[in-house]
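WARN no homologs supplied; continuing
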Amino acid sequence: MNDCYVLFYSQARFSYVRMKYLFFSWLVVFVGSWIIYVQYSTYTELCRGKDCKKIIMYLGIWGNLPGVVKCQMEQALHLDFGTELEPRKEIVLFDKPTRGTTVQKFKEMVYSLFKAKLGDQGNLSELVNLILTVADGDKDGQVSLGEAKSAWALLQLNEFLLMVILQDKEHTPKLMGFCGDLYVMESVEYTSLYGISLPWVIELFIPSGFRRSMDQLFTPSWPRKAKIAIGLLEFVEDVFHGPYGNFLMCDISAKNLGYNDKYDLKMVDMRKIVPETNLKELIKDRHCESDLDCVYGTDCRTSCDQSTMKCTSEVIQPNLAKACQLLKDYLLRGAPSEIREELEKQLYSCIALKVTANQMEMEHSLILNNLKTLLWKKISYTNDS
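OK structure emitted
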């Protein structure tokens, strides 16, 4: 009998100790989780951009779809003459809006930001409402403080803003979602217009002229190249005097353009596509010694006024001329003999376009439509496009 009592007492004591241990373990986990939640939720809804490069791959899954994760807050993008178009990483981007900010006040903040970036467009209020819809990440009909902080930080980035503005356009990658200071865009199958990827060590020893010739060997068939080129021309139309002003393409290079398995062009990097109004305000009256001091990216150039030694605000080459410069070798190599001469003529006319030319907009539209028509007529009845 005593043995049974001791056994029962031991089992009861063991159950009590185990329950006590489990209770305190649960309490520690609960309190720790609550502290972490309070610390992080008011910052960026549990998404920390500074850890992005450490723990999140650039290629990932958002929902059930493949996407590309971008964490641009870590990068400092500069104008060549020392003024920034986008934030440096040391700037605190998550200090706005503050707790207690009303939705109406947040809308006014976003409106003022757009007015500074895009100019005094008549339909900025529509864009503000669109942003509020996008900012509601969990689609609960309300914009939380964390969602508002995240949206405000990302709206400083031209690529994010452009993806929102052009979200219904065919050649702009879809914005799949965002969290904190990272955002996810749809994955693109081919991430360069042409060429082959080589280890950087080998790249160092390849002459640039030979590299360009080698790149031309690794391209799709000509009808498919023509379809991709038409996509680039259509994207130029999308950003040329669109609903929220003109955007300037300041780095039109093969590495920033891609295409999908249907050979539809997709922009893979739009960080150097900037609002014209914004660029003009930042570049004008900057001190310069020559035209080389008045450049943003690789392709947006203004001139240096030697009488005042300051940069002018008018960009010399329009987007279309820069796009045609890129497409010249791409399209002429392997072009059908019956259209090659006309194609070359139109491409050179396109490259010669200047912003300051009389009736530039009319010439712009005429050249763009003629090029698209010439290419479409040639590939419309081929199976290879």
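Residues 2-12, 34-46, 73-84, 87-92 have pLDDT under 50 and may be disordered.
OK
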